[in-house]
């Protein structure tokens, strides 16, 4: 109750500060209750609803930090980590090493004769990996839909794809994210270790959990839904069988729409590889004309709402931290479509 | 004057809150004026002086944010970007694409017959890159020194290296960094676009710049020294000649020691690939027994102080933002020795 | 004179043996003087004019071997090697090594406790490279032409490309090549170390060299044209400036057509990265409707004739070996469009 | 009988031609019956017993070709292919493609305005793979043994390894192989589809098969032992379970020693990933002081005899081709320890 009130105050301030002629709901610039966002930010926009973030909204989010405590929501990645099988495998390879440099003898400045009498050396690594592994944020260039392969805002793969990734809405266009975050501990609310395979999280589940947690989703909030899957990640996500058993639980279109259109969620995330339950039921698939990932289509393509994946929510749940400042920055790699191997922060 | 006072107040609070029996200088747990840190955190420690961060210090740093304004200090990376030639090259390769998936015909669920009548598809990328490119933080496992190839805290490459990176002090052990940051605009103070090749930044330069900026380095501060090199980065760091011309400017051992031992800097960083000027003069090289990167040896191996590289300080300088909350999280890739392609934030 | 006679005899035998109802020129199945080949091998063919090879032709080629002497025509490749800048860079990375395995401690069977008391270990490498580096054979799926992106035999990139290379006419469809080979030492004939930049080898050059060498191109012959460029390759092709200076010399459309249509050459190759001189003169470019590599379009797309690149012809020239059995097998990597880092053999 | 006689004649000629003062067995330069080879080629040698090949031996091998028929012994490789799990995974990635180049718009010469009115484009691929996949030849730098990590001829990993592979006895030092080859169809002799898991091929098995095939191993012969495993490879070795079930069958030390020391085999190969049965019985392991791959230690390190792996012997067996000319060239990639994704030829 207390924290909600405090945040509503902040939002009021925000609405005042950001006042820019738009008569929008909940202090947002472009969000409409019952409609959400969509392609409302102009024909050149690559940012989507993250445009809602302002100095005032960031300041309000940071005001939620009263203890200085930080939670690292990133899951560590290595060659053994669970990932969607369609992605490329990953290797971290010692590229230069003290023993290797000494044996290789290719760099004069590393030798005693070259002045390196103190024997300085270094480790560095070559990384081969996918832009969709471990803790991720899906960018608005990730998913396309329809015969023209359109992604967010009508950009097409033909025009804006290429050999080296996408040239519109790649991750370098995702602004730093500083926003209010809310944990929805669905697994905790259902009193299970982790939700079962393909379980569809309902609106009632979310409302029930929020009520039990005494916290609400207000417009502009990052919503993180806990299935419990990340509890099986361990050191490096090596137990593919166990993780895979729960990784297919998540929200469907009904909950996604409710969160975006009725509650104004800024981003939706969870502790699985794909946020949405799968495979989709026929109604969900057909709602976007037939798709294997209708929630992705709805959020990324139609609404311009980013998706957060494999956020480690275990410690937040254990500590019953339900409201926090959520801070996330992506890799600055041009062309990539998702922030990958990230470490989002929850600060309180 | 104003900002310094405010921060000193915060530091006082911090010292009080963190009071833990150590009689240390400047509210720090283990820092000694005239000595800095070193291997003082116990034989198993992999964190170094970032152990100084506490709830109180993070809270104090966040209190510096009064406007909610965010600066992205990351430099975008792609196949053309400038890097130290000893590192592996980088490629971002479209791994799956709408056109490629359709031509490849290897996934039944992507076909109309498989239910995908709405034609959903996706872009993803395979990344081949080095763990030391674009905006970085050097981890304590990066540099080794001496005949036993020791890195920080006496861990040796023999014992803790391997085929897949390092197994002590890799980047997954670097905690989220939330700390007070200070910009030292050396190029601005010297009234040049960028410092010349191999220029050694002196203590006088730093003191002069700090005085002109009316800000000070207090114990626990992240210090970012601006050479001006990042102004030539542009879209992707493609102008190797221009960047290379200034990239060798930086601090030497004298300034590094002064910042760590006299001022208690938590981390040292700049807008170049290596922080320190190079090649080192004989005195600097010999001070660590003969080395091509004595400042790296001093900071990473001997002091347990992390190094920040290629932080984009241009907008901070242009806006005369000299004090801020610095927030940085690394990639969560086991074995890697440096956070790579990062986007640190300066918040004020 | 002697060798020519011997080969003509072989060809006669071949024509007799291969006699199969086609009334074709020079003992070939489908070649027509003045026309060459083209898409003459049926709508599903992925092999092109290498279909001309038969047991008899291979046997005839092997009969040229009278001494058992072997020439390795491959140029060694590593991270420093010259390549066309549009291709991906290459790294050979120690993936597992005795020191790395011992440090990594991830494989119980490598430890003394696991029975490895004799301390067996191994080196292996991860390779990141392009399918168009060092000594190559361009496959018929390499080049496309026209608005439909057609390659040989009308296969289109839309239908037969994909995320993982090409699915028609990839290198796995290239049969083992065992054929008569002829060296045309153009640089030797012109009495230069290497042909100058962009030099177009003329029909007169080739006829002159063949005459001086007392050897002829008969139908079914692999023709290797020496520019002298490979003499600058050395250990690993590291002198990019020197190699690049001569690498643009080669044949144009006139010589290519003469060799294929008048002489029945089975394949055309040289000691450069691209066989043809470049950039093309307007007449050559316009002959295929406007192209930056008209000889590639002509040979690979229109004629179904493979191209050999960066064959090391230096020792053959030094030893004045002008006729030989040419043996080449490609990598067996599905999807790749060129045999790469190969070692063709010339046997005599 | 006939073929044996013919080859013995050839060997006699060879012995005469190669006569060089050594009084060695079977026409070999350095082989001793009951002892084999070993480190007998001088302290700088990186070639091992492939030094036995001469113009005369190559010529004799090629004389076995009487029909001009060629067998491709390579197994095609892609991202799905079976491999030893300790090796790095493989990806073939479309690096440049007609659609990608057009979308990427980074190369002026590919545009109509740049002269490319005929719309020429190309496919190329980036390859990430291991140097030990699909059809291979193990180089003499692959395996090390003992506390000093010695490989063939006493070269040590410390001295001759490094970050970029090995610098002694890498694959570029393997000469082109042209030699007499003999198939030993053990699976056929035992009348099974494929040998069972961990089956140790005995000397009696080999002698029985050779007798049934009416062919013998003479000094200088490449010996290929068929377990039948390759019959399950199919298009790309995707059925890991089935392949893995038979892949552990092979020879032990007894058969290896007999073939090398009593018969003078030039190389030993099979149609599995590792030639030898596994895991080794205690006696075999202890014979080299305790090892998980004693046959590799014996052949590569102690004898200087190369190993051939995953040679596809199915068609040879089906056609009952037991004696042939074996021709193999490796990739020319410096530092790599095994020829990989090769296509050896059997010619008859």
3D architecture notes:
The structure is a homotetramer of 348-residue chains. With 348 residues, chain A is α/β, with parallel strands linked by helices. Chain A has helices spanning 2-18, 55-62, 98-104, 157-160, 186-189, 203-213, 240-246, 253-262, 282-287, 294-303, 314-318; strands at 70-72, 91-96, 120-122, 124-130, 136-138, 143-145, 177-184, 200-201, 222-225, 250-251, 267-270, 307-309, 323-328, 338-339, 345-347. The first copy, chain A, has two domains: 48-84 and 131-347, Putative cyclase (Glucose Oxidase, domain 1); 91-128, no CATH class. The first copy, chain A, is built from eleven helices and 15 strands. In chain A, helix 1 packs antiparallel against helix 2. The radius of gyration of chain A is 22 Å and the shape is globular. The two termini of chain A are 16 Å apart. At the C-D interface, helix 2, strand 2, strand 3, strand 4 and strand 6 of C face helix 2, strand 2, strand 3, strand 4 and strand 6 of D. Strand 4 of chain A pairs antiparallel with strand 4 (124-130) of chain B, so a sheet runs across the interface.
Keywords:
homotetramer, alpha/beta, nine-stranded mixed sheet, two-stranded antiparallel sheet, 11 helices, arylformamidase activity (chains A, B, C, D), signal (chains A, B, C, D)
């Amino acid at each position: 109750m207390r924290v909600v009130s405090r945040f509503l105050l902040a939002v009021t301030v925000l609405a005042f500060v950001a006042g820019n002629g738009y008569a929008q709901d909940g202090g947002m610039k472009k969000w409409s209750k019952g409609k959400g966002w969509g392609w409302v930010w102009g024909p050149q926009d690559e940012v989507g609803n993250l445009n809602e973030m302002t100095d005032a909204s960031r300041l309000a989010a940071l005001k939620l930090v009263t203890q200085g405590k930080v939670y690292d929501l990133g899951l560590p990645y290595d060659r053994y980590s669970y990932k969607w099988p369609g992605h490329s495998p990953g290797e971290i390879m010692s590229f230069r090493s003290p023993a290797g440099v000494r044996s290789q003898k290719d760099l004069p400045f590393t030798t005693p004769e070259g002045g390196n009498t103190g024997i300085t050396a270094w480790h560095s690594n070559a990384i081969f990996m996918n832009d969709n592994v471990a803790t991720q944020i899906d960018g608005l260039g990730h998913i396309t839909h329809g015969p023209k392969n359109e992604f967010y805002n009508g950009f097409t793969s033909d025009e804006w794809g290429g050999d080296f990734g996408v040239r519109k809405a790649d991750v370098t266009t995702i602004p730093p994210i500083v926003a209010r975050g809310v944990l929805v501990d669905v697994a905790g609310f259902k009193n299970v270790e982790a939700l079962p395979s393909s379980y569809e999280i309902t609106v009632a589940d979310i409302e029930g959990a929020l009520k039990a947690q005494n916290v609400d989703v207000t417009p502009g909030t990052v919503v993180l839904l806990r299935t419990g899957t990340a509890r099986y990640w361990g050191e490096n996500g090596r137990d593919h069988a166990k993780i895979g058993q729960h990784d297919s639980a998540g929200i469907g279109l009904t909950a996604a729409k409710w969160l975006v259109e009725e509650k104004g969620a800024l981003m939706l995330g969870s502790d699985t590889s794909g946020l949405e339950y799968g495979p989709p039921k026929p109604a969900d698939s057909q709602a976007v004309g037939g798709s294997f990932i209708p929630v992705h289509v709805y959020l990324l393509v139609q609404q311009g709402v980013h998706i957060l994946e494999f956020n480690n929510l275990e410690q937040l749940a254990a500590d019953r931290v339900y409201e926090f400042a959520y801070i996330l920055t992506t890799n600055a790699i041009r062309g990539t479509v998702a922030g990958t191997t990230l470490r989002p922060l929850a600060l309180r």
